[in-house]
Design brief:
Blueprint (H helix, E strand, L loop, with lengths): L1 H20 L1 H4 L11 H14 L2 H12 L3 E3 L6 H4 L4 H4 L1 H21 L6 H22 L2 E2 L6 H4 L6 E2 L1 H18 L18 H17 L6 H14 L9 E3 L12 H9 L14 E3 L1 H9 L5 H4 E5 L2 E3 L18 H4 L4 E2 L11 E4 L1 H13 L8 H15 L13 H6 L8 H15 L4 H11 L27 H5 L1 H11 L13
Antiparallel strand pairs: 1-5, 2-3, 4-9, 6-7, 6-8
Helix pairs in contact: 3-7, 4-21, 7-8, 8-10, 8-11, 10-11, 11-12, 17-18, 17-20, 20-21
């Protein structure tokens, strides 16, 4: 019996030893990936960064506030009527961090000690800057330096950083990343859905984004603004349409393959089957926008807009009619169909490309730089006209038949005011930003807050939360008050109350 016990004890000991020896192998999931594929994760960050709540943020909030869009409904009229609805204002913040921000942070973490992949690292730094500037421009102070570090540094409640410190770091990152790009080394290739890994184009994108962010500082710190604008110009910004940053999409098979400026609003409001009569959220293009396009005989109106007549959209200028902002009474279905909506064959087409940053925008910023005396190579007039021509040609991204080849009639009818005042010229330049960058409502909203152009007449809808003024930012998610309350409290002490009328740092 004793020998039997010893035998089983020895067998058990051997089994334990064997299990311990092979423990790691036995308990390793053969299907798990210890280190993610950075190419795949980078592609996902590009898609997620642009897919983030387009309808809620770009259309219902920013698009309503800058009077590109309008609706008679109250719940979805947060931007149209300056109302308070947490569902809409929290969405962008809440989705950005766990998706695109987290993904690009993983890519950077995996590449920071890989010298042979320096181009991938620097392109990722540029894309990270793009993602963060979109968030901070909406909310102001946000988690930045400590964000997306739960797995690497066990930081689960990141502090909020001042927008000033964020902007200065974004500009530094863009400069360092652009200088670090090396055309002799490999890049992301076709995992890069915007430039297919073209290092030279990413360099121009980095300096063009630097130009955008540098211009954002004109009101709060003109000297710093001039410094970064000059750096961007010296580095080389996007001038030719072939260098435009464009995300290409297909019509499925999943929504993330589709253009977010199309699938998100069409799914939630502008469904093709409603033919303009019963849009889910009552959305239409705003009267302010359509009226300006019509009174200036702007040919882009037929690219942007259409009125449903039966089962098709009529895109001729004569039939376009914008819906007034701040309206509460619902029109009848037949009347509702008479108002303009985005053209479903162009900007609302599922497989339409999405313009991220173009030569139309950069030339307009260069025109402002020339107007301010910061750039003397060309005149503000010539740069303004180049920008308009570029915007007309860029309509060709929707198909060759939509290209507007001749801008001369428009520029003749609406000449640049060479002898006008500084304010008159700024109004012309930034009215073109307001027109040319449609459908990037977030960027137009940010630029409008900086410049005040075009001049928009606010509405004063009953129950609005801004005392009848156009909001200057959107509020933090309510969830942050319970999850990250201490850090959020520090941010509001520094920036100001968490209201729609508190101005972000560069808007002071």
């Amino acid at each position: 019996m004793k020998n039997t016990i010893l035998y089983f004890a020895g067998l058990l000991l051997f089994s334990i030893t064997a299990c311990t020896k092979d423990f790691e192998e036995i308990n390793t999931n053969p299907n798990a990936v210890e280190k993610g594929n950075v190419n795949f994760i980078f592609s996902k960050s590009q898609l997620d960064g642009l897919n983030n709540n387009y309808f809620f943020t770009n259309i219902l909030q920013c698009g309503g506030m800058i009077q590109h869009y309008a609706t008679y409904k109250e719940a979805s009229g947060v931007g149209d009527k300056y109302l308070n609805n947490e569902v809409y204002y929290s969405a962008y913040f809440s989705q950005a961090y766990p998706t695109a921000i987290n993904e690009i942070s993983i890519v950077i973490e995996n590449l920071k000690n890989a010298p042979n992949d320096s181009n991938k690292l620097n392109i990722s730094r540029i894309w990270k800057a793009y993602l963060y500037h979109r968030i901070t421009d909406l909310y102001g102070d946000i988690p930045y330096f400590d964000a997306a570090k739960s797995s690497t540094s066990q930081i689960f409640l990141p502090k909020y950083d001042s927008q000033e410190s964020i902007y200065k770091d974004l500009l530094k990152e863009l400069e360092e990343a652009a200088l670090g790009l090396d055309p002799s080394k490999s890049s992301f290739g076709n995992a890069d859905l915007i430039y297919n890994g073209d290092v030279a184009k990413w360099k121009k994108f980095s300096y063009s984004l630097m130009l955008r962010l540098g211009m954002r500082l004109t009101k709060v710190d003109p000297a710093l603004s001039k410094t970064w604008v000059n750096k961007a110009i010296a580095g080389g910004v996007i001038i030719n349409g072939t260098d435009n940053a464009i995300m290409k999409y297909t019509d499925g098979p999943n929504d993330f393959n589709r253009n977010p400026s199309a699938f998100d609003p069409r799914r939630q409001d502008f469904s093709q089957g409603s033919f303009g009569q019963k849009n889910g959220e009552g959305g239409k293009l705003a009267k302010t926008f359509i009226d300006l396009l019509k009174t200036t005989a702007d040919p882009r109106i037929s690219v942007y807009a259409g009125v449903w007549q039966g089962t098709t959209q009529n895109t001729t200028s004569a039939v376009q009619k914008g819906f007034p902002n701040g309206i509460k009474t619902a029109p009848s279905p037949s009347e509702q169909a008479t108002f303009s909506e985005p053209n479903q064959n162009t900007v609302f087409r599922y497989d339409a490309p999405l313009m991220i940053l173009s030569n139309a925008e950069t030339n307009l910023y260069l025109a402002e730089a020339a107007l301010r005396g910061w750039y003397s190579t060309e005149t503000d007039k010539s740069l303004y006209e180049k920008a308009v021509k570029a915007s007309f040609l860029n309509t060709g991204i929707y198909g060759a038949s939509y290209t507007i080849n001749d801008a001369t009639p428009y520029l003749t009818a609406n000449p640049y005011k060479t002898n006008g005042s500084f304010d008159e010229k700024m109004n012309q330049i930034h009215t073109q930003i307001w027109i040319a960058l449609f459908v990037d409502e977030q960027e137009i909203y940010a630029n409008w807050r900086r410049t005040g152009y075009p001049t928009l007449t606010p509405i004063n809808f009953p129950g609005n939360v801004t005392n009848g003024t156009i909001p200057r930012r959107i509020k933090y998610p309510t969830g942050e008050y319970s999850v990250n309350s201490i850090n959020l409290s520090e941010a509001t002490k520094r920036q100001g109350a968490d209201t729609f009328t508190t101005r972000v740092w560069w808007d002071k």
